[in-house]
Design brief:
12 strands; 7-stranded antiparallel β-sheet; 3-stranded antiparallel β-sheet; Beta-lactamase; alpha+beta
Length: about 375
């Protein structure tokens, strides 16, 4: 297996683990990047971006990362709060008046960041065209009541997280969430990462390879279950299948679900949350400490296992085996993962086009993370 890129001395074990993912764990195309102390120490890629055509993974290949998109969206929210433009403990209706309908007048941004708003499933009968158009889906959320009493329990807001926070960003900044992200973070840092992939970049995107077999929540729990309505919603439109290769899906703005970028971009973004990178630090130390503190932990009403969240970020053990206790970030469905750990001052990102779901943990991520921490001891 030919692996492109570079590895700094002392991090060779990561390259070995990356190669093992292809030889032992079925990876098809992937990339991994690690920053330490604000500087890249690993930036590697390999395999096929599109096995149907033989197109190889290149340095500039982009990958859909699903819920790993939630981390950059949370960073946008925290930066608005640092600027004094958003109070995360004020009612969302202060910024988005229509949101107050149906008993939601007291729901705050903090409740959304911590998955405690009771709005995990999107109500209403929507077409895919309406969902991708933004306004209809956020209007549906504004009109619906909560599923449970807000702030009494938590349940993973798989897609509504991005639409609610994205609309808050839009109401405050005047930009769509994708444009705001590009203007305030990705542009200044030079990141190849988008929510709402530009048409000109579609040719760089790796082809997603859905899992060989997956049991849907609807089949296991019934289509009316909260889990099924969240994970396949809105309106049962979403599954982990070929739809995610459609240009209209990649070009839409779903700030919780369809971030597209490189491992290099995600690692650099997380590095800049903890340290100055190219003259830019994204989050102040006090913001970072508050955002990475446990805010919701315990049985999750949606995914039905224990989850752990800070303010917009997933926290251990949700980041996989071997990740340090102070780490914060977000995994993406099927294998992608990005996080930072302030303790050894590292930022890590792995992206892959070969989706797999492993109840005991994805061995590809596990091997890379263990190698990372072995190299920082």
């Amino acid at each position: 297996m030919e692996i492109g890129g570079s590895v700094q001395p002392g991090f060779e074990r990561v390259r070995e683990a990356f190669a093992q993912n292809f030889s032992e764990h079925g990876d098809v195309g992937a990339a991994c990047c690690i920053y330490r102390d604000g500087h890249p120490v690993v930036d590697i890629w390999g395999g096929l971006a599109d096995p149907s055509t033989g197109r190889r993974w290149q340095r500039d290949t982009l990958q859909l990362v699903f819920s790993a998109a939630k981390g950059p969206t949370a960073v946008c929210i925290h930066r608005l709060a640092e600027e004094g433009r958003l109070d995360i403990d004020a009612p969302i209706a202060r910024y988005w008046p229509e949101f107050a309908a149906a008993g939601k007048q007291h729901i705050t941004t903090r409740m959304v960041l911590t998955h405690r708003a009771g709005l995990a499933a999107v109500a209403g009968d929507l077409t895919l065209e309406q969902v991708l158009a933004w306004d209809p889906v956020v209007a549906a959320i504004a009109a619906q009541p909560p599923e449970w009493e807000p702030d009494t329990a938590h349940g993973y807001h798989a897609r509504s997280f991005g639409w609610i926070l994205g609309e808050i960003i839009r109401r405050i900044s005047g930009d769509s969430p994708g444009r705001h992200l590009a203007r305030t973070i990705c542009g200044p840092l030079g990141l190849d990462y988008w929510v709402g992939l530009p048409t000109a970049e579609i040719g760089r995107c790796a082809r997603l390879l859905p899992p060989d077999a997956a049991h849907s929540a609807a089949a296991l729990l019934g289509a009316s279950s909260l889990t099924a309505r969240v994970m396949s919603g809105p309106s049962g439109l979403f599954g982990y299948n070929e739809m995610w290769n459609r240009p209209d899906v990649l070009m839409a703005e779903m700030p919780s679900s369809n971030g597209v970028g490189s491992a290099r971009a995600l690692a650099k973004l997380y590095a800049a949350c903890c340290d100055e990178v190219d003259g830019i630090r994204l989050l102040q130390p006090a913001t970072l400490e508050a955002a990475s503190r446990v805010a919701s932990r315990g049985p999750d009403l949606v995914v039905l296992v224990e989850t752990c969240f800070g303010l917009g970020f997933s926290l251990p053990p949700m980041l996989g085996a071997g990740v340090g206790p102070r780490a914060f970030g977000h995994p993406g469905a099927g294998g992608s993962l990005a996080f930072a750990d302030p303790e050894p001052n590292v930022a890590f990102a792995y992206v892959t086009n070969r989706m797999r779901f492993d109840p005991a943990g994805d061995p590809r991520v596990t091997g890379l993370v263990r190698a990372l921490y072995d190299c920082t001891r």
